[in-house]
Amino acid sequence: MAKWSRVALVLTVPAALVTGVSGAASARPHAVAKGSITCTVVSGKVKFTPPLTRGGTSNAEVVRFGLKVTGCTPGDGSNLKSVQSRFFRITMPVPATTNDTANSCPTAMPPSGSLPGTGVGRWRSRGYVVSPTRLATTGENWNMAGTDVTVSIPGSNGSATNNGTSFAGYDNGANSTISLTLGLTPGQYSAVCDPVVGAGRLVRAMITGGRISLGPTLFSAYTGSSAWVTGNDPLVPTDADHVVLDLNSPYTTCASNGYTGCSYAGMTLPGVTGLPLSRVTALKYDLAVQTPGWSSGDGGSPRLVLLLSDNGNVQLYAAGTVTAGTWVHLDALTGAVDNVNGTGESCGTYQITWSAAVACHGAATIVDAFIVNDSGWVATSGFDVWVDNMTLGSTVTSSSVH
Question: What is the pTM of this model?
């Protein structure tokens, strides 16, 4: 019986062919992704090094998030039609301590913290080699009051910066947010971290959901348009870069069709996702109607809307007459809001006080925030309005960060 031997097979390939293959492989252009992106399917894990304990055992601690991100949609100003994420990683070192409390639960998972963070996101897009995102953050909000533990980065009192890397948005990352849901219940957290009876160690937890928004996203439909334009908000003297956000809703006949197909334009306002409504410290913005000759009601636009975890929402808008060219300042905490009741609630709805709205929604947290103009149906002239200095907590979305 013949015995087969293993023989190394060597192929001689012409140098020109080798060069051609190399050239084809490197032909894809490199791109720094412009504009914004939103990813709505997030999984992965968070790891605590060393593990967390009730009171701590170490003067050093690092919190690391390793995320798999899908469901990504490039937003306003993007130069890419479709994007897939390879991964998104966030590293948050706890400042060194001298009393072995760096890895204590209250230090590493505070309800309102100030940890520095470094986020790195890598992306794929057909036809391009996409440069990574590098997002620097300060601050985080851990919330143990819901069904599962959640965290928001940078949190309601934090900040974010993207210095020219992919998806820096209009604002160099200032309004970027990352909200994550852990596969960890408040009861499981308390079993380790309760200040009295907590025991054991918290090594890691799975990430079961979340949302990553890099850069504020402009949106519009049915002939509506959103755009940053030359203008000035005189109500904020320090805001002197002469750029405002124009939200234009042209006339449609949607009012005779159940308000289906109304033109609209708006912008998402990241920065408060996961924050309890009761902890919102500011909710305000400025507006000026641009439709010539306008002196009437505004049809409920523009309105700044907070969608809540109880399926309700609150809305801030000018309820009275607005006049073309006149800037108006709206402040929910000192004025009034419209309220949409959530599950099992029965509260006031039209122009109630902020404290009444907070009491109505109890422990509800914010799931999304945006400002929108959809009142083109009010008159055949349509409805065009400028807005600026949208403020949610300590986060200001303004021409000054455009």
Answer: 0.63
